[in-house]
Structure formats: C-alpha cells, structure tokens
Amino acid sequence: MDNIVEVIRTIAVTKDIPEDVLFESIQAALVTAFKKNFGSNRVARIEFDKETGEIQVFSQYRVVETVQEPENEISLQNAKEIDVNYELDDVVERREEPEDFGRISAMAAKQVVVQRIREAERSSIYEEFKAREHELIYAQIQRISNRVVYFNLGKAEAALPPKEQIPGERYRVGARLRCYIAQVKEETKAPEIILSRTHPGLIRRLFELEIPEINEGEVLIKSIAREAGSRTKISVFSRSEDLDPVGACVGPKGTRVAMIVDELGGEKIDIVEYTDDDAQYIENALSPAKVTRVDFLTEKNAQVLVPDYQLSLAIGKEGQNARLAAKLTGFKIDIVSESAMEEEA
Question: b/e per residue, 45-80, with b = 16+ CB within 10 A?
Fold first, then answer.
C-alpha cells in the first residue's frame, strides 16, 4: 500500500474522478474484503488515513444480555469490563490486525481504482456524446458486421443499424460519412451510440451546415418530410422580406443544395417556401406541380384541383409527391383533376 494516497490523487487528477469518491469506494471495498476473508457475518469499520495511507480495521460488536452470535455480539458483562459506561445496544469496537490484510487491502484497493476508472471513463464518454445527440458527426467506417456499420469516434464506437441506412447506399471500411446522432444510451459496458442516415434531422443539420443564412438564423426551417434515398421536401421561410429563403437554400446555379444532394447519394430535394396561408402552403408543397385551386373540406382536409396534364406530376410516382406534401403541411390532401371535377358537377 506504499504511496497509495499519492497514486489515488494522481488518478483523481488524470482521470477527473473526485478524490473522495475513490477513498470512499476503497473503504467500502476493504470492508467487503475483510468480510470475504475473515467471516461474512463480521461487522467491521475501516479507517483509511487519507494523508498516510494507513489502514486500521475495527471489528464491531453489539452489546446484548445473552450472546447468540459471537462474531457480532458481546455480553453486557464483558462490555462493562472494557468500559463501565457501556449499555445494551451500544457498539463495542476492537482493533484487529489480521494476518495478510495488508496484501488483501492492496488487491481490493487496486480493483476499486480500476473499476472506478472504467466507470468514470464510461460516464465521461456517455455525457460527451449525450450532449451531442441530434447533431452531425463526420466519421470513418471502422468495420461492418451483420449489416451493421460501425464508425470510429475516437473514444467510442458508434453503430449505423440497417434500418437507419439509406436504401441502396453502399458502405465500405475506411470511407468517411456524415451521420446524425439519433440516440445515445447508457449501457453497462459502454455507451450505445446509434447513428442514422435516414432521420429527417440529418437533412436539417446538413442545411444548417451548408446554408449560412440558416446557420445564422436569417432563414428558418419550418418542416421536413423525407423518404430516405428517394426524395425530401423541406419548407423554409425568411425573417426578412428582402431575402428569398428558397433562393438562399438553392444557391447560385443550385450549388448549395447540390452539395447536400451529393452527401445523400443523389436523393432529390424539393425546397418550398412556408407561408401562414394554408392554401398557398399546400400549393407550394405540391411543387413542381401547378395547382388551380385549393378547397378545404374540413379543418385538416384539403381538396386540390389541378389541370389534367399536371395530375400525374402532382400525385408523383407511387403517390410520393402527394404523400410528402401531406406530411410536410400536416393536411390530408385529395388531388382532383379539372376534368374529373367537371364530371362530378
């Protein structure tokens, strides 16, 4: 146990663990070690001098009328022979000097220090990445196992499960990718860091990264509807009448949004302007289709009239355009062609 105090203080500083936590943990471990080696029913108190590192063991005995458990009890008569002031239910302490306890103490202290270092490092990693939940990371693929892609985050490893992968996207060891930190969970061995390439939050963070006006708060993202790997719709609006929010996001000759599309492997992105005018917002959301009129059947149910030649464009392949527009705006959207409307009339 030579220099144990110095060792503990060095560890406390380098691993950012409070000294008191280490000392208290070692004392508790020494009590456990004492019981393990000298009787599980024994009751003991350990004194650990934080200056010298000296350890003293005191067995404790409860004062009783008749002794039934000699390991933990002492008769009132014998207690009064030690000190006449002892009464029933008092605790008598006797200093012990068990052989080999110095060696046992050293082993227990070492185990506690190692355990506490692991716990502190695990806690530190968890807190660091928990604070980064819902943010972007740019990391390298370390390995791929059972379709799960694992990324090296330096202190930790993060997983991109199959359900969080963009359909059709290929991954190779050594490649670097931007991912969204979807969830960080505290586990026994190490924090579980779940990444995503499909989460709408990835779109939000990429726009914040690539569009200065969004990053600076001049243009705000109102809503995102995404079918990962295929198409995304995003609605934006400007705090200033002089700033075109869609133009800011598209960039000169489409350069800004093109960088985001490249990052997503060619996923189509429709950027539309948000407005408090629900009819206009629905019309914008159905872009690139042209809309003749929007009628509201109920508070959240809209009927959209489109020219016949725009019907397939408004609905989109397998209904995708209409589906994303509905998700973006929060309205149930029924699309009707002009000829169909005339027939009903």
Answer: ebebeeeebebebebebbbbeebeeeebbbebeebe
d(CA 345, CA 334): 17
Yes or no: domain 132-196 corresponds to CATH 2.40.50.140: yes
Exposure string of 9-21, with b = 16+ CB inside 10 Å and e = fewer, is eebbeebebeeee
Distance separating the N- and C-terminal Cα atoms of the chain: 95
CA 51/CA 333 separation, integer angstroms: 75
Instruction: Quote the tokens at residue 336.
Output: 């009707």
Contacts of 299 (CB under 8 A, 6+ apart): none
Per-residue pLDDT of 200-214, as tens digits, reads 999 999 999 999 999
82 phi, psi to nearest 5 deg: -80, -45
Instruction: State both tokens at 322.
Output: 């209409």
pLDDT, average across residues 177-186: 95
Q: In the prediction, which pLDDT does 102 show?
A: 63
CATH of span 199-274:
3.30.300.20
Domain 4-129, CATH:
3.30.1480.10
CATH number of 288-345, picked from 3.20.20.70, 3.90.180.10, 3.30.300.20, 3.40.190.10: 3.30.300.20
